[in-house]
Amino acid sequence: RREPLALINLKKKNEETGEEELASRLDHCKAKATRHIFLIRHSQYNLDGQADKDRTLTPLGREQAELTGHRLASLGLKFDQIIHSSMTRATETTEIISKHLPGVKKISTDLLREGAPIEPDPPVSHWKPEAVQYYEDGARIEAAFRNFIHRADVKQEEDSYEIFVCHANVIRYIVCRALQFPPEGWLRMSLNNGSITHLVIRPNGRVALRTLGDTGFMPPDKITRT
Fold first, then answer.
1. CATH of the domain at 85
2. 74-99: pLDDT as tens digits
3. pTM for this structure?
């Protein structure tokens, strides 16, 4: 409901000026800026941790986060904010990345936590969460998509550059939804740790995928997917 027509009350249209007034009101409801969304997968973490607080970044994971932070800084963009999952591995990745982007505010959210977004098609044998997870996690991750991935607000005057540090399942689902692909295909994509996925959302709501899971800035011996 971000199309200009959805933002005005057509019942209040002046009957005398009609179409002319409608066109003017529509212009005031059209977005003007482009949003650049950088989706970062967290770095490698300790898989043996039983609780989230124990799943901290490995030494290699910390190196990966440094490389990702350096890459983002090298782009020379004025980043507006870093929104990150509240899970430990995403929070630690954010802390390292943010050292390379001084002054950029950080916001933590539970919406971006890892989970099971939707039952994959085709199904896979190595990953079968309980059905209830799809209902609980899926609703939350869909809420994250609707909350964060949309055209710019009509009040936004300049293009924005935002970083989201989260998880592979969340990013893959968001990419499918943003590109209007069947979301059940999310598991067909693979993302390296510390990778950068770049979505562009135009003022008319159209979305383009600039990069998916880019880790070309990392030496081959630093690249992992676990």
1. 3.40.50.1240
2. 999 999 999 999 999 999 999 999 99
3. 0.92
